[in-house]
Structure formats: structure tokens, C-alpha cells
Amino acid sequence: xxxxxxxxxxxxxxxxxxxxxxxxxxxxxxxxxxxxxxxxxxxxxxxxxxxxxxxxxxxxxxxxxxxxxxxxxxxxxxxxxxxxxxxxxxxxxxxxxxxxxxxxxxxxxxxxxxxxx
Length: 117
What we know:
Layout: E1 2-4, H1 15-32, E2 39-46, E3 49-56, H2 63-66, H3 84-94, E4 98-104, E5 108-116
Helix pairs in contact: 1-3
């Protein structure tokens, strides 16, 4: 599912880096939905920034796990490197933006990327 405003402004970014961030976030969201569910991507402008949110209907993330998600080499996945979110956060911060995760166990998770216009 996708939702966005009709006329979104351009954001100056390194396309390859931002592609890596969104591929990682989308893959994480899809992998979290082991029992199926909806994946929603929303884009809108707020406070001089472009906000992109990716929401899944997966299992959600407990607060103790959430506290470590951006730490390099931390992973809850078998065979995971634990680098995806830490690298994504560094990329977004390198663009003067912010990456945040909001989650509720048994409900799902939303990743929000804020990039300045």
C-alpha cells in the first residue's frame, strides 16, 4: 500500500546510499511479517522535511531489542550481520536527517526517515 502527496519536492541526496537505506528498511519490514500482513509506505512534507514512513504488520519489536537495533553487529536474525540499521542510520545522519523506529509487540513496526528539503 502506498500513500503520498501529489507534488512532492526534490530532496538532494546520494541516490545509491538512499536506495540502500530504503531497500534495507523494506526488506526488514517484509521479513518481520512471517504471517503475512500489509506493508504501507507513506511520504509527506512536514516542517521543512520529507518524511517517509514504512509500516509493517509484523510481530513488532520489544523495547529491550529496540534499544540495541542501531548498534553495529546486533541482530535478531539467524545469519544476520547486524549492520543494516546501523549503516542506514549513519547514511541518513550523513544527509542531515533522522531515522527512527516505532514498534509495538504483536502490532507492527514503523520506520520513519526524515530528510531536510
